[in-house]
Amino acid sequence: MANKSAGFFEVKQGNRKFLLTKLTAGTVTKISYAAVRGQSKEEGAIQRVLSRSRIGSIKDFTLQGGAYPNAIVLNWVSEENPITRSGTKISFSDAADSAQIIDGQHRVAGIKAAIEERSDISKLEIPVVIYENLTTRECADLFLAINTEQKPVPRSLVFDLYGVASQELVDLAAVRARDIATYLDEELRSPYYGEIKFPGHKTRKGGIALSTAVAAIKPLVEDKGAFEQLEIHELEIQKQIIFNFFTALSKKYQDDWSDKTNAFMYASGFVGAMEFLRLKLMSYCAHQKSFEVETISKAFDFNDVGLVLQSEVKGLGGTAASKEVYDRLINAFKPSKESSAKFKI
């Protein structure tokens, strides 16, 4: 163990006080621990079980130079290792398990995993909030205040910011999906021209939120996704295939495509269509060696099942509505058994 000291400010909010300081990543990961609710009987146990996949992503983020401007929130509980104050400094020993984590347990675990791979990360400075000897109820109140009252950034804004953020901080599959969604929104010939809702942009009732479009397109463009499985890697070709699919569908609706009665002008229709493209149409078109509009159009016959209308899915929940659209596309799908001799797009 080693003695540590750090500058601090005392902050009062309502009836509670806390210490605001900065500590190295090595110190934070050594002194803190997660008291898991249902597994630990100690006072202050309010944490959930750690997610290994999330720890791995935070580890990678840390190794790539990711920033941590938000404070780790701790509840100092060690009686054997109390915090002492002297002027503007606090002092303590870096004994293990001195402080429970109220907020930031995955960040701490991910940073700890990064330190194990690269020791210099232990010197990373992290803002830390320290409460002292809180009860379980007080810890629960703080946890809920942080995780429910302080709303996360809307997903559409996150995906929109991927277009301007540093490359090492972004989800590359989401960037590719965003590029395709932007193309659908900006291309004059696109069935979704002006219909993708970007943050700050206003459209008529209906339309597709950017977050919805990105989330629906992403499974096609991510590693080992539908496009990669067919060795279709080029952005321009991926854009054209999705464009052709929706163009073929829009031709079935003719002048009614842009009407608010069309289910494909809403989130459930877009999601159901992307799921159908990924699970059914991609392999069919690959077998036909053609992703042309004419090839796709000929594979659909809505005469018996009817066009998919928003009124038919409006009362269903999000997942159920998109599945209904998917099922309707399955019913209208009449694939040809013949195949072309040459691959065409």
Describe the structure in your own words.
This protein has 345 residues and is of the alpha/beta class. Helices cover 43% and strands 15% of the residues. It has two domains: 3-151, no CATH class; 156-332, no CATH class. It is built from 13 helices and ten strands. Strands 3-7-4-8-2-1-6-5 form an eight-stranded mixed beta sheet. Strands 9-10 form a two-stranded parallel sheet. The mean pLDDT is 84.
Helix content: 40-55%
User: Per DSSP, what share of the residues sits in E-state strands of 2 or more residues?
Assistant: 15-25%
How would a textbook summarize the main sheet? 8 strands, mixed
Q: What is the terminal separation in angstroms?
A: 66 Å
Question: Using only CA atoms, what is the Rg?
Answer: 26 Å
User: Order of strands in the sheet with the most strands?
Assistant: 3-7-4-8-2-1-6-5
Annotation, overall tally of beta strands? 10
Q: What is the string of helix and strand elements?
A: EEHEHEEEEHEHHHEEHHHHHHH
Number of domains: 2
What are the segments in which pLDDT stays under 50 over at least 5 consecutive residues? none
